[in-house]
Sequence to fold (1061 residues):
Amino acid sequence: MNAPTAALGSTVPDTGDRLGRAGLSAALLADEDALVTALIGAARFDTEDRHRIARVATKLVEAAREGRHAQGGIDSFLAEYGLSSEEGVLLLCLAEALLRIPDTATADRLIAGTIGSGDWAKHLGHSDSVLVNASTWGLMLTGHLLDWGGDKSGDLGARVQRLVARSGEPVIREAVRRAMRILGKQFVLGETIQDALDNAAQDMRDGYRISFDMLGEGARTAGDAERYGRRYTAAVSAIALHAGAPEARTDETLHARSGLSVKLSALHPRYVAAQEPRLQRELLPRVRELALQMRDAWLPLTVDAEEAERLDLSLSIMEPLFADPALSNWNGLGLAVQAYSKRALPLIAWLAGIAEKTGRRIPVRLVKGAYWDSEIKWAQEAGLAGYPVFTRKFNTDVAYLAAARALLARPDSFYPQFATHNAHTIAAVADLAGDAPYEFQRLFGMGAPVYRQVVEALQKPCRIYAPVGGHRDLLAYLVRRLLENGANTSFVHRLADDEAPIPAIVADPVEKAVRLPEKANPAIPVPPDLYGSARRNSLGLPLWDDATRAPLLAAMSEVLDTPASAAPIVAGQEIDTADGMQIVSPHDHRVLVGTCALADDKSVDAALDAAKGAASEWDARGGAARASILERAADLFEAARPRLMALLVREAGKTLGNAQSDLREAVDFLRYYAAEARANFETPVTLKGPTGESNEMSRHGRGVFAAISPWNFPLAIFTGQVAGALAAGNAVVAKPAEQTPLIAAAATRLLHEAGVPADVLHLLPGSGETIGAALVADGRVDGVVFTGGTDTGKAIAKALAARPGPIPKLIAETGGLNAMIVDSSALPEQVVDDVLRSAFDSAGQRCSALRVLFLQSDIADPVTEMIVGAAEELTLGDPLDYATDIGPVIDADARAVLEAHKEKMRAEARVLFDPQADQALTHGTFVAPAIFEIPEIGVLQREVFGPILHVVRFDGNRLAEVCEAINATGYGLTLGLHSRIKATADFVAAKARVGNFYVNRNQIGAVVGVQPFGGEGLSGTGPKAGGPLYLEAFAVERVRTTNLTAAGGNASLLAAGGDDS
Fold:
């Protein structure tokens, strides 16, 4: 592989505050109520100041509205097509997809499904803006191709649907594309830097400065990063040539000149916290070279802000640049600070310290923040203790004012740059700053009417942040801008809405925050409360935060200093049997993880006897009592995070992120099944029936369940099986995978500690051929819950069927030959991210993992190239090293099977990507990821359980055949689809016979209680784990019917039928 291999036996990083950023870490997930209360004190104005600011803000709004009516522009467009309207959302969908679609058939389907569902006619003539009416006319053009002067009874959407469905004429596609281009040109200054400079000439003559933003972010491949880097370099040369030599090399001259904004994620394909050492080697020199170019030309360079998890990474790249002697005496290196981040003020304080240390005056662009919706979702998915951003917009506005005061208070350290379109914020900043040197900034295409007044009336300098690039590179930027400024609550949207009252628009956000007793938004629960009162979300740690990860790794290292142990646990006693084995780490067989004593016939017999005797009493405790025990177990699991994660990494070969996910899933199972037991197993359900009798149904455990779990999720699936059986009222005899008994033993001990009676839960480590077979064949076992291979599942079913007496229950989740379908409307960058994660996460050792990728032929070449390029950047190595993307496969047998399959593919398929694992990894069972192109899915006869992806091309008009081919495999576990066309998603959903269907996302990591997991056909029996029907499979239902009239008469009926007349 091209990427460096993570070192074996990685060291634990220093737990000290090595970069002096303790204040940032402490504020990362700060309590919003407490933080906003503190910020109010820092941001609040007295009454006289508030009135003065309101008067200035009112004048700005009045003048801006007048100017908007005269000129129009994107502000008017947002008013007409804001995200509050269905059509605004449809435009967003089109902007994301249409310009990238190479084939006309898919473009037609997108237009039919998107434009046809909007009522565009109602927008025509509503605005005086030429942009709005030109765009609407382009969208309506399809309607004019119908008998426009004839039948007026049908709505425009229906007519568009009929026309596109009938003809798909090129003129329709061109009309819609032109409408999209009209929209795009309002956001992009030019497709090339020279075009942008030419188009900006008038703004520059009017006194505006420009910060050119070369569109393109999140490089996926080395080629992407190199291409973006060349564009930045060329842009510097062009801007320098246009600007000419500076009159003097002073700060005043520097900040009066146009400059460049850069996203570091565009300059390296692995701009993530886990790759910081590599980025120091590879990215830092690139950024330094760019900074040197800007210094030589005496131009300002701003590093844009990105997602919260990348802030520390950005600072680690910038800190050595601030201290670089070669960049001294040039105060042009700056960065953006996001006010919606709870770390904004600690970041400003850290930057002030850097400025003092280096003698610099740092330009700081203060922005509100553009990733808010994503940050909220990511925090919820990650189960963080809180949010890294504020949950109310006006809290961000409060933080912005507090940050503005902090910047203005240190003129020796900062050159403040206030990026905002909000009239109140502009007026407040102008009032605070007085004659201090600073500038305002606005986005190209937005806020022009407001800033005309800023420049002309307030006489304040303004810089325009202007994207440069082709429409294909516009989409990520455009989506953020529409989401940020198209929402009903945004200033841009309300300014463009003539019905919005000016006093409300210019209201002081600080006073609004003061009036609310609850500062955080109650409509957005903190991640731990995501599921309401029924259960608490499992806690996830932000591993990308050094201050969080370092102590966790230190605690894990301490755990691993002492080898772990496992043994049969029967009635609470750990039995030292004659037979045992050593457990070595799959990443390095020289590393001893622990030892395990193996169960024998005597321990199996004792466990089954004890379980059989204890099952009835456990069932009689009721669902609520059992739920309380499982909830205590969940808390104990979280408290034992270092121990459990350490074992998951070393015994199972999981990376740090995968180990945390495994732990979180186990905790979710415990809490979800506890909630289900409390709701459905505590009291009987009353069933309606004829008068004079009562009918009640109660649920009870079946008796004793054998739980046979796999090694790929040795904590989550083990715990899920055991918790499900326990919650339903069964005793459990658990047989973990022979590769991972240490984790199972640790989990069993915690369950006993939580209160599960010793004779109710037993652990029998050993092989499937001996211990598993003995449990399946024993008549004391009333049911089997199994996760593993399809062949083993079939063998268990046959063995159970052959037993005399009652038919035991079998709950089986088996393998999958999982596919993903990608059509030409999909966003390639998102496809690449989701394909790599679905195929190679956990070294491909997931039941849900992607095995076969179907790519529409029209996009197959470029998408394949991007996937291969991104795969080349992955790191194979020690899973305890945070830099590792792919760890080992579980053992030598698994590796042998996978390498044999690779050899077969080399002979029979087209090799797309097939690197060799580094020689440093020979002591472990590593398999390098590989990608092969095959003619059809039928080439694969069974599941390939490892990091091997197969690609199949398909014609866009043969989607039905693709679905049929997937169904023909007999497996039905997971299926992914990437398409921007809802009709396509509906079609695939109707055709495919799979348990879990994922649209426009990866297809792994099903969340308990949110995405119940399980398949059909060769992929399992159901019901789905983590779903509302799962516990039912572990239970029997008993109905009690009582004749209430047996004692003489039906009193309730007589009372109801009484007649007083």
Q: What stands out?
A: Residues 47-71 form the longest helix (25 residues). The two ends are 93 Å apart (CA to CA).
